[in-house]
Structures are given as C-alpha cells and as structure tokens.
Design brief:
483 residues; alpha+beta; Beta-Lactamase; Helix Hairpins; 6-stranded antiparallel beta sheet; 13 strands
Length: 483
C-alpha cells in the first residue's frame, strides 16, 4: 500500500523528469468511462451530474499537470474534450442545446489547457530546480568524499549531516548521522599533554558555540594497535547572506607522518652530532698524542687519523648524496663493464675491514652491464657494510649473481640478527634505523639503504630484502644486462 501511495502521490515525484505518457492517458480514459457509467447507470440523469463530472475533470487535469508536467495535463485535457464531444454525439444534442454544448466544451477545453500549461510549466521548473540542487549536492558530496582529509559537516545545532571516507579511515570509526557534536567525550583522543578532551572543547563544538574559526588544533588519537595517530583539526561555521549560522564544517588531517619526519629529523641531528663528534674526538686525541710523543708510534697514529678522516668523508658524502637525491641533482656516468669484476674488487676492499666475516663470491663468467660503476660500487659497499654491522658475531657473507630474462640479480646474504616484518616495510626509508629484539640500534645515520634504493631506481632496477629473525637477511637488487 505504501508503494502504491507513493506512486500516486504527486509530491513524491517532485524532481523527477521522467514524465509519464501512459498513466494520464489510460487513467483519464478510465475516469471518463466511470463518469459515463455513473451518469447513466447509477444517477440515471446525466444532466444532474454534469457539474460533478466537470469538477472531477478539473481535478484530473490539475493532478496530471502537477504529476507529469505539461504533457500529462494536455493528455488529460485531450481525453476529457473527446469525452465531452462524445456526450454531445451520444445524447443527440440539436439546435440551441448542440450549440451550447459545443461552446461549453471549447471554453472548458481552453480552461483545462490553460491550467495544464500553467501548472505543468511550474511543475517542470520546480523539477529543474530540484535536479540542479540535487546535482550540486551530489557534486559536493563526491568532492568531499574524495578529499585527502577527513571532513565532518553538521547543521547549525551540531547534528552530523555528512562525513567522508577519509574521516572513517583516520579515526577508524564513522560518526553516526544525527549524532550531536559536543555531547560525548571521545576517550581515545587527547591533547599534546595526553589530557582527555571534553566534548565541549572539540574544535567543531567551539566553532558552533563561539561562531569563530578554530584552526590547526593538534590532538593524539590512541588506536587499538597501540599506535598513536596525530591529528590536526580545524573547524568553521557556515553563514547565510544575513550572517546566520546554517551549518558547520570540520577538517581532520592525519599528520602522523609529518610528526614522524620531525621526530626523525631530531633523531638525525642527534645521530649526526654523535657520529661526527666521535671521529673528531678521536682525531683530536691522536693529534694530541703526536704532539706529546713525537716520533713514537707515529705511523700507527697516522693510520688511525686516516681511518677517522675517511669515516668523516663518508658521512659527509652520504649527506651530500641525500641532498642531491632530494633536489634531483645526482649525476650518473653510464659505462659498460663486467659486474663480476666490480664485485670482486669491492669484496677485496671490504674484506680488509673485518676479521670476523668471510665474504664469499663464486664467479660465474662475464656479466656485462651498463651502469655507473662508482654508484654500483657504492650500493655493494653499503650492503656489505650492513651485512658486517648486523652480524656482530661474524660468519659468512655470500654474494650471488643470477642472470634472468635480460637482467642480472645480485644478492648479498648475511647471517646476522635479521629484520622484523614491520621493519621490512620501512627499511629503505630515509633516516630509518633497524633495531634488534632488545630495541638496540646500530651506529649510522640510516641513509645507506635509502641512497642505494635511489641509485638502483635510477638504473631502472629494483631493490628488496628477505629476512628471518635470528637467521639473517638477504638483500637483492637488479640491473639490466648489456648485450
């Protein structure tokens, strides 16, 4: 019954532009037929019910003009006029009665047509306005839904009207439409000092209460996985032409990554200070030693000074490389060479730096590549250095090469501490440092793997890692072969 009522209710079809042809046609025919049956079979006096029939026909024209626009009203008018001409013919009107019937029919037809045109025109204009309003609303909803920040829209009383996908993603929950802002405290959201935020202090509630914009308020959201999400929230009211508040909107941004970057910058400054301070302190001690003990163990001391100087040079080189990568100024000199020869040369240099590790490589003939020899040496050196650093107890470091479908894959395998799954996702990020099960970190600024990734990427290759805790890691990278 509800569906039938909605189908017949003309107000339920406001905004619809699919104007029916068959409904006004057959309904008007049915009404004319029922009117004729009533006049002849029930009232048995057609002349006495003429006024009622005219009234019903007026209502029919108005109904279909309002429901189906100009088309519906004119179709209904046409059927009614035909019915009136049928009455004149069927009742054998003659003389003055015939003339009066024709004139009355034409006058009523003109009135019906005028009503159909006026109401139908208004109906179609209303439909166009509603359609434009609906299109605008859909466009706004689509824009809001695709925004990279969370959005909450409320009415002037603070009742939530709309949220977008990003809001749900950031908060891990949806705000139920109709919920009123400012009534409930969200226990998991705290301020900078980890103090719970009362509902009345939430930026959107404050904006509605004061009429002022709240901008860039920062909060912490504790989630079930024990990871904090850092939020930046702004809110503002929306006013009409006369300045009355009609709605409010709040924008929620996830600034966790920015906070992590800031944290890493601070850590980087501390690490850089420490890493640079250590060789500088050593250099100063060695210089003091030379000054105090001239001619005694000078060669050994000078070698130590050279080693510390090389460490400083490497730190500065890494910093410069990161800067060049960020500014797109890293330059490559592409040459054709045998990658196996480069691997052997790198192993020879790196083996001198450790007595606990045995670096192995099985030569598999000549494998020619076109790449920047110094940069690929830098990648190999970084990977072997990490293999030595993260296997403090020593062991074998195996280097393998494999030729497949126009490319070569180089693997550096160690027997070190291994890398956890969550760290595998971040290991190639700038300034990221791997820690062991006891949260112990190892010396370095966390730039080697980031630089290596960018070098391989610019050679149209790929770099990745496979690892198991306590069993070591294997780093792979690919380079295109040069035929």
């Amino acid at each position: 019954m509800k569906k039938i009522f909605n189908y017949l209710n003309p107000f339920a079809h406001l905004g619809e532009k699919d104007y029916s042809f068959t409904l006004p046609l057959f309904t008007s025919l049915l009404i004319s037929l029922l009117s004729e049956l009533y006049a002849l079979q029930i009232a048995k006096d057609p002349m006495s019910v003429g006024g009622y029939i005219i009234f019903i026909n007026f209502a029919t024209v108005i109904y279909f003009a309002f429901r189906s626009g100009i088309r519906g009203g004119l179709i209904s008018t046409f059927i009614i006029i035909l019915y009136y001409f049928y009455i004149i013919y069927d009742r054998n009107y003659t003389g003055q009665l015939f003339t009066s019937g024709i004139v009355t029919t034409l006058v009523l037809g003109s009135i019906y047509a005028a009503i159909a045109l006026i109401i139908g025109y208004l109906k179609q204009n209303i439909d166009n306005l509603i359609e434009r309003e609906a299109d605008g609303k859909r466009r706004l909803e689509a824009i809001v839904d695709q925004m990279p920040v969370g959005v909450v829209i409320t009415d002037s009383e603070g009742n939530i009207l709309q949220t977008n996908k990003q809001f749900i993603t950031i908060l891990g929950r949806d705000a139920i439409k109709g919920t009123k802002i400012g009534q409930d405290t969200v226990d998991s959201i705290t301020d900078f000092y980890h103090k719970k935020i009362p509902a009345s202090q939430w930026p959107l509630a404050q904006a509605l209460a004061t009429g002022k914009s709240m901008t860039k308020k920062e909060y912490t959201l504790a989630k079930d996985n024990d990871n904090n999400t850092y939020l930046q929230v702004s809110a503002s009211v929306i006013r009409n032409k006369v300045g009355k508040t009609i709605a409010a909107v709040s924008v929620v941004s996830d600034i966790t990554q920015l906070k992590e970057i800031d944290k890493r910058k601070d850590e980087f400054i501390n690490m850089a200070s420490h890493e640079l301070k250590t060789p500088l302190t050593s250099l100063r001690l060695y210089i003091d030693s030379l000054l105090k003990n001239r001619g005694s163990d000078q060669v050994k001391t000078l070698k130590s000074i050279k080693l510390q100087t090389e460490k400083l040079q490497q730190l500065i080189a890494d910093l410069l490389d990161v800067s060049r990568i960020q500014t797109g100024k890293m330059i490559f000199s592409m040459d054709k060479f045998d990658i196996n020869d480069l691997i052997k040369e790198t192993i020879k240099d790196m083996q001198k730096t450790t007595t606990k590790h045995n670096i192995k490589f099985k030569n598999k003939g000549s494998l020619m590549v076109k790449a920047d020899r110094l940069r690929i040496n830098q990648v190999l050196t970084n990977l072997i250095t990490n293999a030595i650093k993260f296997a403090p107890l020593g062991g074998n470091i195996n280097i393998l090469t494999k030729k497949t479908s126009g490319k070569i894959t180089i693997a550096v395998q160690d027997q070190g501490i291994g890398i956890t799954k969550d760290q595998l996702q971040k290991i190639f990020e700038r300034l990221y440092q791997v820690s062991d099960a006891q949260e112990k970190t190892y010396p370095g600024l966390g730039m080697g793997l980031y630089i290596s990734k960018e070098i391989i990427k610019r050679h149209n290759g790929k770099i990745w890692v496979e690892s198991k805790i306590g069993k070591g890691s294997t780093f792979y990278f690919t380079l295109p072969l040069k035929n």
